Input
Amino acid sequence: MFYTIKEKTTSQIVEKKSKFIANVFYIETEEQAENIIKQTRKKYYDARHNCYAYIVFDEKQRLVERCSDDGEPSGTAGSPMLAILKGNNLCNVLVIVTRYFGGILLGTGGLVRAYTGATESVLEATEFLMAQIGVEAKVILSYDSVENFRYYARKNSINIINEEYSNNVEFLIEISNETLEKMLKDIDNFSIKLTKIDILKEKTIKTNTTA
Output
């Protein structure tokens, strides 16, 4: 179990005339993070620095952590930003802090405080969601199990993405690994006639419970 964010959020602080613009994004892959970083650099093309940090589960559900000082003295920007993400148990999150230099040098301690402050500021304005590692799966059921399955899904935070009806009923669902294990033990007790379940891909599953 970890936390992620609901949507992109922006905030800004000023430190000795330098402006620090912090943007936080929900991400699902390294590629997505790198594309957002490129787009942000284009947007703030006239800024002195675009420092970033992100944590994401890759396609094989391995934890990936990346950060960059983008020309600031080593260890004064990316690392402190990454430490805040880790300290808040955040994942699938990218934070970018853009600095417009105000003409006054901050020193290494001042830079750490500024990038830390900008990151904390944007996270304070952000809505967190609980998240778990899970899967997208196709579940094939008999018609007489549909309402029981819908009830079970509502009670156990299983997201039904799509439904298809033919000889049987096919539900496309998002489900955490923990809930999947529980469901496979519960189906008989809830009178659910599960014909087949196909795991399509692993993914991060958000819940509606906020931190």
Q: What stands out?
A: The two ends are 12 Å apart (CA to CA).
